[in-house]
Design goal:
46% of the residues lie in helices and 15% in strands. α7 links the parallel β5 and β6. It is globular. Keywords: Transferase.
């Protein structure tokens, strides 16, 4: 089988999903030609194009160039399958033309719903407005024309089937995976003086930055000498996070607002005793398992994150604690409970949770199943 990864999506450590899928396919002996490349603009910048016409024009030109290169590759290689990476919904349009010309099947890695991200989570378009309705219709039109859609959770599969009226038999669930050469298990500290809590991210609404800040305030007020926090990242809600921190909490939080490499973030996870996931209240929170949760589990670290159907799908483990989404009090209680409890080593349980759900071995089996459909 010959597969061309086509279009304007990104293939880089920042988007490990595409790189890992390519690697697993090659392990299966598939003839893979990856036309995707590293992009200057992140997914946040791409979503921001809905508000900035100059960004939109630049991204459109880049997209057209990618279509040209991908079209030439399809003409030369005549692939059995065209794989469109996330996030690149519009790439389905030229892929449909190539399907007609060369008979290649089209798979779109939908991951998560673009309309939900832009309207419900980022709130870049007015709900129910003209642009919202236009985006929804466009997304529904394109999703229903791909031969197969790939998503990361059962909840996102249900969303595509119910909201966008996609045939469920054409939607395949493939959980996200990571570079395990970077995210290996780290040893746990033998003697803990204080509880170390880490959070990293791009501060999108999904993360619930204000909830985290309010939880930090409560923890620092109750047990100021027992917990230290390290935060890494910047983004849409970073200023709201800073504004929500109390003066006392500011002294307990080390915050680096730079964008760091995977290796640097791995160092942060290794430093921590507990890593924080996401705590927002949008519908998207209920449907996703973010990279930061998977990174922490792979590192052998306990995780506290919002309770959701997506996370609830894992087998129960003390290495993954769920708290109500949007509840700073519940998050603070969970952190404080660990600060006051005897030290415990749940690194093996965390890694086991990763291995059974997100490892390369687990993904290899699913990709083989997908390609045999």
């Amino acid at each position: 089988m010959r597969i061309v990864f086509f279009g304007s999506a990104e293939s880089s450590p920042r988007y490990a999903r595409t790189q890992q899928v390519v690697a697993r396919m090659r392990e299966l002996g598939v003839d893979v030609h990856n036309q995707l490349r590293e992009r200057a603009a992140s997914s946040s910048a791409r979503v921001g194009a809905f508000r900035n016409p100059f960004v939109a024009i630049r991204l459109m030109l880049d997209m057209l160039a990618s279509w040209g290169a991908g079209g030439w590759a399809a003409r030369r290689l005549r692939p059995d399958l065209l794989w469109i990476g996330y996030p690149a919904l519009l790439d389905i349009m030229p892929a449909l033309i190539l399907r007609r010309l060369y008979g290649s099947r089209v798979i779109y890695d939908a991951m998560i719903c673009l309309t939900e991200t832009v309207v419900e989570d980022r709130k870049l378009l007015k709900r129910g407005g003209r642009l919202h309705r236009l985006l929804f219709r466009l997304e529904r039109f394109l999703l229903r024309r791909a031969d197969c859609l790939v998503v990361d959770t059962e909840q996102n599969r249900a969303l595509l089937c119910d909201k966008f009226e996609v045939d469920c038999d054409r939607v395949f669930v493939l959980p996200i995976s990571i570079d395990e050469t970077v995210w290996a298990a780290s040893p746990v500290r033998a003697d803990r003086d204080v509880l170390r809590v880490a959070f990293w991210g791009t501060f999108v609404p999904l993360h619930g930055a204000k909830v985290i800040a309010e939880a930090v305030n409560l923890v620092v007020e109750r047990c100021p000498s027992q917990v230290v926090f390290r935060v890494v990242g910047d983004g849409q809600d970073a200023d709201a996070f800073a504004a929500a921190l109390s003066a006392q909490a500011m002294q307990a939080v080390q915050w680096d607002r730079s964008i760091q490499t995977e290796e640097q973030l791995k160092g942060l996870a290794a430093w921590a005793d507990i890593c924080l996931g996401i705590f927002g209240t949008s519908a998207k929170t209920q449907c996703v398992v973010p990279y930061k949760v998977i990174h922490a589990l792979a590192s052998g670290r306990e995780v506290i994150t919002a309770d959701s159907p997506a996370v609830r799908g894992f087998q129960h483990s003390v290495a993954l604690e769920r708290v109500p989404a949007g509840s700073a009090a519940a998050l603070a209680d969970a952190i404080e409970q660990r600060a006051n409890a005897p030290q415990r080593d749940n690194s093996a349980l965390a890694r086991e949770l990763f291995e059974s759900n997100f490892s390369a071995k687990a993904q290899l089996r699913l990709i083989k199943e997908l390609l045999e459909k």
